[in-house]
């Protein structure tokens, strides 16, 4: 190697003498006054080096904390070139967040026991988040304090089943119907010392009532049984009765937004819609199998979801009943109850297959499934009004309290904690379609029976599909039309 | 915050100084003038929108003001904000934080997707603006060196620079005279606080170089080929004569890794926790230092590997070979990702810049070449009379090249043709290792006579990120950082030429998707099932009968295809006939003009 060839400017740090002196002389000759002015400076640095130089010199005091009591200083620079591998690092964070979510997914909060028979119905308090009412199959009714996980009041409401229960919108009293053909109104507060548990009001009906619901803001309630009755609270006979060639109804529900509308599920496999202001029902849709109950979307007035005997749930648009908006599949047995979250974005369903599932309102499959070894057929389900908890009443006399979001941390979050949670939530969303992350996020452990039943159902469905395909293949083109899953389950709409 | 007015942004500060700052009472006239200017000059959409907004809000007011002069001069215009709206951000600064081009809007039918895209784009735009605004608050500025008129900066000696700058910075120029244990290799830690020296004849020392504190000093009693810090200053790797060793900062041997033999060069990939080694036996090996496992061992079959560097942008390893090629490697592939013929004669050194855009190579043909590594195209070629033995690129893009005992620093090598070096410095011995110190204007040079720390103004990034590499971090902060960094260790299989590939939509082919579906379902939903004839009684399931029945359904699909093609053919034939018939009919018809025909 030959250093310092012709192309390389030589830098002789050690020999500045000659050239420096020359420049020095020239300069001093040319401008005497100028030199005189800068003379003190020139003494320090030879004039030749009238250069401007700056190097990075940080004062450590700007970068470390002053005392141990301070928090550490963290200067930031968001320049993307200082943060390489942005995407891969985010992906790794998202993967970790997804894994941690599965680790922390412990949805079960508490079990409330005390009933001496299966829990048949539940009601949320209109005003108090921590109060829950439940009625069992032996006619007993309990009022629970959810924050303390304890029963605060027990009363024998009916003989036989408590069929339906609803809290009045003001929260001061509640109504129950039972197998003993009565409607009873009770005070919310427990009776004073020495007083007897007595209903405020009792209405003796002619037939058995199977369900009831109260109007959102009027003293009017509706019951169902052999017909749908609208009652004024002040009167002992219904102000209106609806029948439409049906012998019995299983449930009736007021629309929480369009408050004059009602919907009921009938035993002839139909869902009937009513307007309280009219004397006749609006319309009904007849499905292939019976719907057990339904729930209105509290945010979008015209959507409701019904829980069907054919293992599915159907979300309908009230205006177009000919075809459901969405078919929600995943249960492997009849769906018994459904309740919407107060946000209207999700709902929870209870099934005879001993599981609870949470669906997005526009998702065909559930995002979550809850089960325990001891939980039997889940009869009734409620989503709490603060959107945080789910309450399920089941056959084996227990009421269970679940988290709506399985991995959520309960209690007050510190700001940094909340920020971190939000950040990881966003990351999970961003990378949710990556196969590895999706696989981890979707994985749920299922009881053996349900797992196998799901598999079996899939095989059956596949077989049916195959058969249909073959039939279509071997018949005249166009004679066997393709019927979508949504259309399959609706028989007809009657107006 | 006081913000400059819209008009002032377009002009330079020099021009601005002569004019008085805008006053609200001048606003009326100025605004009108501005409006005229705007229409011509403003290409920027945000400003336009801003102005429109302003117009809307002030429309009523304006009308009043327009009328007022006619009413009389005495009526004062109302007081209003002379600098309305958020402070404008210079375009180049916004560009710095730009991640992606805007997407094409989907069709209106896909209104949900449209909405999602619009929202996410809004969010990213906001983030981009916020980051750009934050840029204004960065405390430090980059260094520089300017000579007098007609004076080359390369003639300025280190002593003079050290004298001219403040004492602490001046102390960063120093020599360590270590002539006993031969030429030195060196490495700076990621934060730039710690220096690791490895002498050819076995001397290994780590120093907190800013405070000149010696952390440890050992002699490994073997030849040392290369030294490298691992993720923190608590551990370093030394490639010794036979094996690879890992020591801690007290000089205690932690591991001797016998799987890694005859290592000549090492690179540490900090975000992957991978130590990549190139050996004399032409093996490129990757060691995961967080779990201590060998991730990949690739036989490159290209002879002795003594030229190596990493692309800090995508963690690809670049190897230089004696036949003049540079090869690119990832741990996921046994073959080189790219082979480039860069020089006639062997490659002596390779360096890749921080953004992963440029690669600088020097070869035995005494040339220095700059390549665009994204397109693998040569950009510049320089002739150095002595050739460069070592190359190093700084955080701000300065290139240092060592030729014999002279170190030269070049500026803007990649973007414009360079004739003179930015700085130069002669050392006592031949240069053996060269490294810019991160976040400092310092170039460390290891040579035959020890180590020299040079001042190179403008080399280092002035503002570090405290969460990524903080030179001033405490022990507690380092521990915290280490845990976090380990948590988000990138898996080696994510190393690819394009690091943003993971965020792009994979538009898989139908075949690929189908294959995935089969994998998920465990069966092929579209597979044709083999026909199994039903068992029939009364002798109708004899072997012959079964064969006959099978024959009936055999080639069913082929038959379908044939049937279809025959049908198509028939149809076309029919159409053709129809056309012909019509044509014939037309030709037979007599037109009124036919009588003029002869």
Automatic annotation (TrEMBL), chain A:
Transmembrane segments: 23-42
Any one GO CC term of the record: small-subunit processome
Pathway entry: Protein modification; protein ubiquitination
Biased composition (Basic residues): 463-476
GO molecular function: ubiquitin-like ligase-substrate adaptor activity
Family of the protein in this entry: Belongs to the WD repeat DCAF13/WDSOF1 family.
Protein name per UniProt: DDB1- and CUL4-associated factor 13
TrEMBL record, chain B:
Bias-annotated ranges (Basic residues): 96-112
Domain BING4 C-terminal: 421-499
Keyword list, A-Z: Nucleus, Phosphoprotein, Repeat, WD repeat
Comp. bias regions, Basic and acidic residues: 31-58, 71-81, 553-583
Record text on subunit structure and interactions: Part of the small subunit (SSU) processome, composed of more than 70 proteins and the RNA chaperone small nucleolar RNA (snoRNA) U3. Interacts with DDX21, NCL, NOP2 and EBNA1BP2.
PANTHER family in alphabetical order: WD REPEAT-CONTAINING PROTEIN 46, WD-REPEAT PROTEIN BING4
Protein name: WD repeat-containing protein 46
Organism: Haplochromis burtoni
């Amino acid at each position: 190697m030959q250093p310092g060839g012709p192309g390389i400017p030589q830098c002789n740090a050690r020999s500045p003498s000659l050239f420096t002196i020359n420049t020095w002389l020239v300069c001093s000759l040319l401008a005497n006054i100028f030199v005189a002015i800068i003379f003190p400076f020139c003494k320090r640095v030879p004039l030749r080096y009238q250069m401007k130089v700056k190097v990075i010199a940080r004062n450590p005091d700007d970068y470390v904390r002053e005392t141990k009591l301070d928090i550490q200083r963290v200067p930031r620079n968001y320049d993307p070139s200082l943060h390489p591998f942005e995407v891969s690092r985010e992906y790794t964070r998202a993967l970790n967040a997804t894994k941690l979510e599965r680790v922390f997914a412990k949805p079960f909060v508490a079990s409330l026991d005390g009933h001496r028979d299966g829990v048949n119905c539940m009601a949320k308090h209109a005003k108090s988040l921590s109060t829950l009412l439940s009625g069992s199959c032996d006619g007993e009714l309990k009022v629970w304090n959810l924050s303390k996980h304890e029963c605060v009041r027990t009363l024998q409401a009916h003989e036989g089943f408590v069929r339906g229960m609803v809290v009045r919108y003001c929260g001061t009293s509640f109504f129950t119907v039972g197998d003993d053909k009565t409607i009873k109104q009770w005070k919310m507060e427990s009776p004073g010392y020495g007083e007897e548990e007595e209903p405020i009001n009792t209405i003796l009906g002619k037939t058995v009532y199977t369900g009831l619901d109260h109007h959102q803001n009027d003293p009017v309630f509706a019951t169902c049984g052999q017909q749908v009755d609208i009652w004024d609270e002040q009167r002992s006979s219904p102000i209106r009765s609806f029948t439409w060639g049906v012998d019995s109804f299983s449930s009736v529900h007021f629309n929480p937004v369009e408050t004059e509308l009602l919907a009921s599920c009938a035993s002839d496999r139909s869902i009937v819609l009513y307007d309280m202001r009219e004397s006749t029902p609006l319309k009904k849709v007849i499905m292939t199998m019976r719907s057990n109950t339904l729930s209105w979307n509290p945010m979008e007035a015209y959507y409701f979801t019904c829980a069907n005997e054919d293992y599915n749930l159907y979300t309908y648009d009230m205006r177009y009943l000919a075809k459901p908006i969405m078919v929600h599949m995943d249960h492997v047995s009849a769906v018994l109850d459904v309740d919407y979250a107060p946000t209207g974005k999700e709902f929870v369903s209870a099934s005879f297959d001993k599981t609870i599932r949470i669906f997005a309102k526009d998702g065909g499959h559930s995002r979550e499934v809850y089960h325990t070894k001891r939980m039997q057929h889940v009869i009734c389900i409620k989503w709490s009004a603060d959107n945080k908890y789910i309450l399920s009443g089941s056959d084996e006399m227990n009421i269970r309290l679940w988290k709506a979001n399985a991995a959520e941390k309960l209690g007050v979050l510190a700001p940094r904690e909340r920020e971190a949670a939000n950040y990881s939530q966003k990351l999970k969303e961003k990378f949710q379609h990556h196969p590895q992350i999706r696989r981890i996020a979707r994985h749920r452990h299922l009881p053996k029976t349900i797992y196998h039943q799901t598999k079996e159902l899939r095989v059956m469905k596949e077989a049916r599909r195959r058969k249909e395909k073959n039939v279509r293949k071997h018949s005249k083109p166009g004679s066997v039309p393709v019927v979508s899953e949504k259309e399959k389950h609706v028989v007809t709409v009657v107006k | 915050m006081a913000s400059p007015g819209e008009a002032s942004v377009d002009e330079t500060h020099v021009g601005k100084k002569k004019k008085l700052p805008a006053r609200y009472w001048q606003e009326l006239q100025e605004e009108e003038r501005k409006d005229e200017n705007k229409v011509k000059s403003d290409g920027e959409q945000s400003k336009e929108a801003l102005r429109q907004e302003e117009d809307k809000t002030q429309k009523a007011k304006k009308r009043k003001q327009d009328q007022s002069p006619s009413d009389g001069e005495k009526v004062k215009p109302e007081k209003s904000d002379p600098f309305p709206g958020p402070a404008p951000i210079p375009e180049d600064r916004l560009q710095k934080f730009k991640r992606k081009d805007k997407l094409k809007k989907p069709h209106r039918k896909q209104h949900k997707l449209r909405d999602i895209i619009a929202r996410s784009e809004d969010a990213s735009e906001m983030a981009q603006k916020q980051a750009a605004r934050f840029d204004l608050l960065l405390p430090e500025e980059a260094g520089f060196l300017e000579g007098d008129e007609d004076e080359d900066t390369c003639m300025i000696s280190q002593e003079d620079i050290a004298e001219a700058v403040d004492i602490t910075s001046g102390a960063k120029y120093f020599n360590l005279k270590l002539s006993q244990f031969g030429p030195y290799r060196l490495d700076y830690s990621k934060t730039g606080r710690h220096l690791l020296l490895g002498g050819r004849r076995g001397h290994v020392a780590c120093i907190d170089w800013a405070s000149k504190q010696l952390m440890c000093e050992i002699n490994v009693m073997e030849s040392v080929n290369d030294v490298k810090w691992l993720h923190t200053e608590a551990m370093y790797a030394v490639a010794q004569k036979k094996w690879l060793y890992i020591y801690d900062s007290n000089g205690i041997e932690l591991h001797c890794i016998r799987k890694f033999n005859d290592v000549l060069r090492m690179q540490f990939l900090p975000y992957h926790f991978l130590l990549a080694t190139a050996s004399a036996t032409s093996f490129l090996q990757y060691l995961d230092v967080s779990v201590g496992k060998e991730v990949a061992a690739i036989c490159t079959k290209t002879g002795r590997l003594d030229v190596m560097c990493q692309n800090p942008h995508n963690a690809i390893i670049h190897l230089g070979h004696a036949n003049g090629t540079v090869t690119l490697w990832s741990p996921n592939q046994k073959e080189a990702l790219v082979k480039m013929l860069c020089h006639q004669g062997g490659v002596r050194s390779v360096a890749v810049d921080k953004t992963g855009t440029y690669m600088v190579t020097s070869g035995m043909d005494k040339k220095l070449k700059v390549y665009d590594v994204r397109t693998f195209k040569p950009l510049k070629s320089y002739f150095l009379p002595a050739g460069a033995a070592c190359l190093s690129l700084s955080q701000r893009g300065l290139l240092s090249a060592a030729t014999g005992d002279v170190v030269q620093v070049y500026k803007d090598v990649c973007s414009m043709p360079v004739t003179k070096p930015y700085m130069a410095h002669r050392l006592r011995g031949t240069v053996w290792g060269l490294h810019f110190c991160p976040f400092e204007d310092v170039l460390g040079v290891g040579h035959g006579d020890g180590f020299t720390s040079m001042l190179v103004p403008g080399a280092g990034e002035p503002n570090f990120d405290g969460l990524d590499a903080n030179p001033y971090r405490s022990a507690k902060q380092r521990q915290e950082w280490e845990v976090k960094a380990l948590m988000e260790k990138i898996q080696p299989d994510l190393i690819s030429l394009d690091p943003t590939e993971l965020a792009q939509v994979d538009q898989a082919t139908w075949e690929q998707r189908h294959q995935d579906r089969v994998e998920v379902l465990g069966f092929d939903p579209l597979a044709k099932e083999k026909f199994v004839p039903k068992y029939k009684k009364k002798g109708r399931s004899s072997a012959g009968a079964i064969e006959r029945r099978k024959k009936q359904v055999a080639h069913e699909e082929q038959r379908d295809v044939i049937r279809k093609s025959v049908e198509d053919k028939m149809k076309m034939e029919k159409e053709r006939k129809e056309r012909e018939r019509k044509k014939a009919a037309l030709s037979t018809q007599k037109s009124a003009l036919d009588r003029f025909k002869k």
